[in-house]
Design a protein that fits this description.
The protein contains 15 helices and 17 strands. By secondary structure, the chain is α/β, with parallel strands linked by helices. Strands 6, 7, 8, 9, 10, 11 and 12 form a seven-stranded mixed beta sheet that branches. A five-stranded antiparallel beta sheet has the order 2-1-5-4-3, with helices on both faces. It has a five-stranded parallel beta sheet with strand order 14-13-15-16-17, sandwiched between helices. Helix 2 (about 55-70) runs antiparallel to helix 3 and helix 7 (about 240-255) runs parallel beside helix 8 (about 275-295). About 30% of the residues are buried. Mean pLDDT is about 80; it is low at about 1-10.
Length: about 525
């Protein structure tokens, strides 16, 4: 009995995957996966887009009639675009009276010819299903029956796990191959001349391609995860560089959404730690992707801190990713890391898409490496994810080595209309011994310099409110002050400037700001300025 129970759970798990895939690929009213049990328990799983369309109590009778049509068709697939235009029969009359106007019935057939069940797709409206729709359903039916036979024939739990993984790999490969062709052709089409309506359609196709490929990746990864095939490696890597590079991957998307992305890293984090860099990067990418997806205004703040370790050779590192997005309702927060769970309302889920697997994968990977992850959120305020990893030190040297007074005696003014970014930059400078004047108001900088405030350097954010950074730099260059000062532009990645605008600044530092880049740029400017004065 125990073996049968395990087999049943495995099959049910596959049905869940199949149903999830079908609901994303086919926008049908009702999808049914059934077996030939001859009882209401025949309905293995079903998805109802409209709760008022097919009630669960009526589903078995509806399935029996569609199954009869499939059987009468020599257990071959049957496709009816409009039940009103099809030959009359008792089965069709019942189906039509139940509100079904179009459907596809795909038999589940074992290799020896035995019928196992049916996959049915039904709609309230007449609809011409394409040959590709039938092919996808037929391919899934083959994969499903193939797995069932493997489960029935296998005496070894290890072989069952491997067969299941191979199946998902094959399924992923078979769908990914034509998808890559679609993605390639879509990219080519996007480069051609199109009107606004055509561009809009192509953008929808492109977004759908991206979501489907993400779904396939998540399903394959989750399948490996559940089968215990994932292990954590221990190789030396630079965790600061790994985080910074990942943040930079998403910075262009943040710029497109007019979001501020702020990065703050602890200088005392070791240069190299031992761990699994690809898995750490995967966690970062998943959480940053979520933050960007659910944030429409404000900022995303990413922080890397060194906490007290449990032992001398260990580095306890906390990663925090905080957004100002739509947030999560308190009663849904406990469900956040559950598989196939999406904690937003139905309208939001339809808008944002996703598999509901990303955070479950993150949690698994973090715990696989001996760490833990938690989340805090408030509806319409934002969400914070905090990860704690316990990694062995590979090098005791800090990743950003400097003396705390390396810039002592330097006076720097900073203007940035984002409060978080302003605080992070000011804190960095103060740690290096700088005397800092910070403001969100660009006119305050002008006033300070006109008042002969002692200034060596001014950091200007590209997108300050109230006054354009280029206009402000031009205005500052024209001020008749007794002391020369340098101007540095803080520009988001992807910013394009003409040569005349670039000439106004002594240096341009890309945001999100890497601490080491900022330090090196400031030292270079100050040393260059000192050498000119000598």
């Amino acid at each position: 009995m125990e073996n049968n129970s395990n087999a049943l759970r495995n099959i049910e798990d596959v049905v869940e995957h199949m149903l999830f895939l079908l609901t994303h690929m086919l926008r049908a009213d009702t999808i049914v996966i059934s077996i030939n049990a001859g009882t209401p328990e025949s309905i293995f799983r079903f998805h109802n887009q409209d709760n008022d369309f097919v009630k669960e109590t009526e589903l078995f009778a509806l399935y029996e009639n569609i199954c009869s049509l499939v059987n009468l068709n020599d257990n071959k697939s049957i496709r009816i675009a409009d039940t009103s235009d099809s030959p009359q029969s008792e089965e069709l009359e019942y189906i039509r009276n139940s509100g079904v106007h179009s459907f596809i019935g795909i038999p589940l057939i074992f290799e020896d010819g035995r019928s196992y069940g049916t996959i049915c797709v039904m709609d309230q409206t007449a609809s011409e299903y394409s040959d590709d729709d039938v092919k996808v359903l037929y391919a899934l039916a083959i994969f499903f029956t193939y797995l069932i036979q493997l489960e029935q024939k296998s005496d070894s739990a290890e072989r069952r796990i491997q067969s299941k993984t191979d199946l998902f790999s094959m399924l992923s490969h078979e769908i990914r191959t034509p998808m890559n062709g679609i993605v390639g052709m879509t990219d080519l089409m996007m480069t051609t001349e199109m009107n606004e309506q055509q561009k809009y359609y192509m953008e929808i196709i492109n977004e759908s391609n991206t979501r489907l490929l993400e779904f396939l990746n998540d399903i394959l990864e989750f399948s490996k995860m559940e089968n215990g095939q994932l292990t954590a490696e221990e190789e030396p890597f630079d965790i600061i560089a790994t985080l910074e590079e990942t943040v930079y991957l998403f910075s262009t998307k943040a710029l497109e959404k007019n979001l501020e992305m702020v990065l703050n890293t602890d200088s005392e984090i070791p240069l190299y730690v031992l761990g699994d860099a690809p898995k750490v990067r995967q966690i970062f990418m998943n959480l940053l992707s979520n933050a960007l997806k659910f944030t429409h205004h404000g900022e995303i703040f990413v922080e890397l801190k060194l906490l007290p370790a449990r032992e001398e050779e260990e580095a306890c590192i906390k990663i925090a990713i905080q957004d100002t997005g739509i947030g999560i309702a308190p009663d849904k927060l406990d469900l956040l890391f559950n598989k196939y769970t999406q904690v937003h309302d139905k309208k939001s889920v339809h808008h944002y898409g996703g598999t509901g697997l990303g955070l479950a994968i993150c949690k698994y990977l973090v715990e696989l490496m001996g760490g833990h992850i938690e989340a805090q959120s408030k509806k319409e305020v934002g969400t914070t994810f905090e990860i704690t990893l316990f990694l062995k030190k590979y090098s005791s040297l800090p990743a950003i080595p400097f003396e705390s007074d390396v810039l002592e005696g330097t006076n720097i003014l900073v203007v940035d209309d984002n409060q978080t970014s302003l605080q992070v930059i000011s804190s960095m400078l103060e740690d290096w011994g700088v005397t800092v004047g910070s403001t969100q108001n660009p006119q305050q900088i002008v006033q300070w310099i006109e008042d002969d405030l002692d200034v060596d350097l001014v950091l200007i954010d590209k997108d300050i409110g109230g006054l354009d950074a280029i206009e402000m730099a031009s205005q500052l260059r024209q001020l008749n002050t007794g002391k020369k000062f340098s101007l540095v532009l803080l520009a988001p990645m992807g910013t394009n400037l003409d040569e005349e605008s670039k000439s106004l600044f002594d240096s341009i530092i890309i945001k999100p700001i890497r601490k080491l880049h900022l330090l090196n740029a400031l030292l270079s400017i100050i040393n260059n300025s000192n050498s000119k004065d000598e």
